[in-house]
Each structure stands twice: as C-alpha cells, then as structure tokens.
Amino acid sequence: YTEAWDADKKSIHVMPDTPDILLAKANAANVSNKLYVQAWEETKKKGYDMRADAIPIKTAKASRDIASDYKYKETHEKQKGHYIGCPSAKEDPKLAWAARAMALQNDRLYKKAYNDSKTQIHIPVDALSVQAAKECQNLVSDIDYRQYLHQWTCLPDQNDVIHARQAYDLQSDNVYKSDLEWLRGIGWLTEGSVDVVKAKKAQELLNDRLYRTRPEQLKFTSITDSPDVVLAKTNAMQLSDV
C-alpha cells in the first residue's frame, strides 16, 4: 500500500524557471568566490603588454628619480670638481655672481649713478615748465606788483592837505595822549576838599594819643579849702610836736 507512495516521494520534479529557482541561482552567483575572480584569472592567463614608453611607466620612473637620493645629488657631485682651477676669481662664474650681488646690495654704489646725474641737469630754456615758472615769478614779483604812482607836490594850504593833516592828528596816538603826558607826575588836592577833610577826621579817630590821654599828663591844681585838705592840715597840727 505504501510502496507506491514512498517511490513517489523520492521522485521530485521542480520546474527550472520558477522565480525561486532563478533567485537562488542569482544569489549563488553573487556569493561565489570562483565567479568573482574568474575574469581576473582569465586575464592573467592571457598575459599583459606593458610598453616602456607607457604613461604609467614614465610616471613611475620620474617619481623614482625624484625620490632617489643619488639622482638628487648627482648634479652636486658633478659640480664638485669645477669649483677650483680658475685662473682668477673674476673668471669664476659663481664668484663673479657673488661680487655682482654684493655690488647691487652696496648703497653707495647703488646711488652713485643718481648722485652723478643730479648735477647734470639740462633743461631747454623754452620748456613749458620753465615758461610757467617765469610767468609765476612775474605774478608774485613785488617790483611788478607795486607800481608807484607819480611823485607830485601839493601846496600846504590846499583843502585836501589840511583835511588829511587833521585826520592824521585825530588818528595820531601821540596827539591823542598829549593831554595825559603833561598831567603825568602831578598830584594836587584842594585844602578844603571832601577827601582831605575825610582823611583828617579819620586820622583823628585813629590817633591813640588823643583818644587815650593819661591823667598825669593833664594840668590841674588842688583846691586849698577842700575837706580833704582841711582834714590833712588838722591832723598834721595835732601830730606835730612843735
């Protein structure tokens, strides 16, 4: 009874173009290391052709030469033997170049040509700048600016001369202060003026001798019949032995 079922279970028929089967094949191809490096392995079997003038080869050689210490010092090693053997220092190009550099750096030699050319100035007389300077000099010249009028004479009794003299006298400081000059040094006050009387009264008020008169300085005489004098005489007679 079960023999046919068991035999049927062992025979499984799956369609090869189902989506699950196709997806499984694609995943297997993606994760397969053999398929991943298959193109590289086939390329290695074919070999490669690298020419000597290829750009990568030239780039690699240039980088190697730049990085090489020997190539870096090759020019210096070749120039070592050329530093000596010159007949004189002037014929050595490096020494001549150093001397030239020092001459350029020297300030005196740098300004020598300028100092020599300062005194050699050649300007044509008809240059625009010279003509402009001459015109400017004429404009600012005091001689041409002040043109004195004719020197004429005037009569002393003319009206304008008299008027000018009066104006000069009014403006003259000496004439203006002449009244003050003759009064300078004169001090005078009237004897009965208010200021003089006020000064005398103030002097009397401030005089201590007149304000405080001592009694012993006053002139007086004693009265002969005063009670004090009569009592004194009586006591003298009573006490007198004579």
UniProtKB/TrEMBL annotation:
Pfam family, any one: Nebulin
Signal peptide limits: none
Record key words, sorted: Actin-binding, Repeat
GO biological process, one term: cardiac muscle thin filament assembly
Alphabetized GO MF terms: actin filament binding
Gene Ontology cellular-component annotations: Z disc
InterPro entries for this protein: NEBU/NEBL (IPR055297), Nebulin-like (IPR013998), Nebulin_repeat (IPR000900)
Protein name: NEBU protein
